[in-house]
Amino acid sequence: MPDFRMLPTRAQELRISRRQILAGAAALGIGGASYLALRDLGSPPGPAALDVGAQITSSPRNGPLRCVASNIVDQAGEKVTLTGVSWFGMETGTFCPHGLWARNWQQMLDQIVQTGFNTIRLPYSNQLFDSASIPTGIDFTKNADLQGLKGIEIMDRIIAGAGQRGLKVILDRHRPDAYAQSPLWYTNRVSEDRWIADWVMLAKRYRTEASVIGADLHNEPHGQATWGDGNKSTDWRLAAERAGNAILAENPAWLIVVEGIEHVDNDWYWWGGNLMGARRFPVRLRSQDKLVYSAHDYGPGVSWQAWFSAPDFPNNLPHIWQTHWAYLQQEGIAPVWMGEFGGRSMGGDPEGVWQRTLVSFLKKGGISYAYWCWNPDSGDTGGILEQDWTTVDRAKMDILSAYQWPLLGRAAAKP
Prior knowledge:
Elements: H1 7-18, E1 66-68, E2 71-73, E3 79-80, E4 83-86, H2 105-114, E5 119-125, H3 151-164, E6 168-175, H4 192-205, E7 212-216, H5 236-250, E8 255-259, E9 263-264, E10 267-268, E11 291-296, H6 317-330, E12 336-340, H7 350-365, E13 368-371, H8 394-400
Parallel strand pairs: 4-5, 4-13, 5-6, 6-7, 7-8, 8-11, 11-12, 12-13
Antiparallel strand pairs: 1-2, 2-3, 9-10
Helix pairs in contact: 4-5, 6-7
């Protein structure tokens, strides 16, 4: 088995660059956080509030999803696969998805559909909901309908527009504030109570919005995060149960997505990627058929690891993946959603070989995913779009298009 213990220092150093804003809004000055009481968030739009394309007709695939063994299934019991992409920005100081300084938001959604994705992972921060958080980095000559809206009202628009195009949305609590990820689900400024209350608010707000199908509870637990040791202040498994059950009490339709941690005992892996503890200590929800585990996995473009230079690379990768997260899917324990993976290269270099091997592994195992990311301004991975925010990276799509599932609101052919 490769030595994973060298991972934390390098991964922590480089993961920051994957979250930096490298274009457009990077230079914007954002005021300090003010974790005020929630107030005046506005009401979500009604069914007729937007006119952004033809409404997808009702079908079993538009109903609530659930899990049977390691499959995500629709109301008819048919397996569905989420093959999506993250579109980030609402978790940053712009308080809106990135790229709206360059394009219209509806055209962006149209292109996500055109490139074959069926799901959007939509990151946010709790700071988004503060009254002092004003969306910036938007060209209102291209997005006039967003002028004057709060961040959560822009979220409403994106979600409604996604649903009208047949896209599903998984909300991702990516950060507590606009400045950095946190190892644990709470900080000295954003309490666990605030974290759960915001999730319950969103669950209630989007209870009748069929396009929202799940909650990715906290992005990339790491550092002091533990799994199964019973320590209320660090045990991510117990925290996920508290938040997940609170969400399901308000909105029983959603899937509850629980990421891994960084290390279990002395086995170190990617932030959010280590699910080894779930075998002995599974997450327990009031509706167990709503549980989806999630892992993140990256290549040498984010941080070089020993397994990338092993003599048997890339044949060693499936065993590493099976050990840390894929066993849950392979053994029929629960579905796994590869919530993040990505990189700049799809070529013959180690990063490209890693990416192509992972896509093949996901396809063979029927594992859902959200690619990181749609945006070109992710520092060490790039995105599906090139720097002009319009041109598609064909090398990436040539690989990903081999494993894409149809929109869940339309008849599915076997991939």
